[in-house]
Amino acid sequence: IYPYRAFGENSCYLFIFDSESLSADTSALVIEQVLLAFEFLLYKNLCISYNKLKDDEKLLLSILKKHKSDNLTSQQLLTIGKAQGLKLSKFYYVILVTLESFKNT
């Protein structure tokens, strides 16, 4: 397996093996092992990306929870965001969206 960087952050992999010298079962096993290695790599990268976003998710969920219970104004939302690390800007759009699940009755 030869990993190399392609465009931006995308990784590409070149996998080379001589399938003609191996039995069909062994070839299938080798391919399954390579796919399993890729699955672990992708899962690891997903976990790393998620951990980087975890604090942002906590902030968003706390703002949504407060807004739902207190019906906060845009200024109050910005004050909460500033306390949580939002950077100052001349202008912000404050848009909150929640998706509610509806049960069929």
Topology:
Elements (H helix, E strand, L loop, with lengths): L1 E4 L5 E4 L9 H47 L3 H10 L22
Antiparallel strand pairs: 1-2
Radius of gyration, CA atoms, in whole angstroms: 24 Å
Provide the number of structural domains.
1
Strand count, sense and barrel status of the largest sheet are: 2 strands, antiparallel
Helix-residue proportion: 40-55%
Write down the overall geometry. elongated
Q: Which range does the strand content fall in?
A: 5-15%
Main sheet: strand order? 1-2
Task: Characterise the protein shown here.
The protein has 105 residues and is mainly alpha-helical. The protein has one domain. It has helices spanning 24-70, 74-83; strands at residues 2-5, 11-14. Strands 1-2 form a two-stranded antiparallel sheet. The longest helix is centred in the middle third of the chain and has 47 residues, at 24-70. The model has no long low-confidence stretch (mean pLDDT 75).
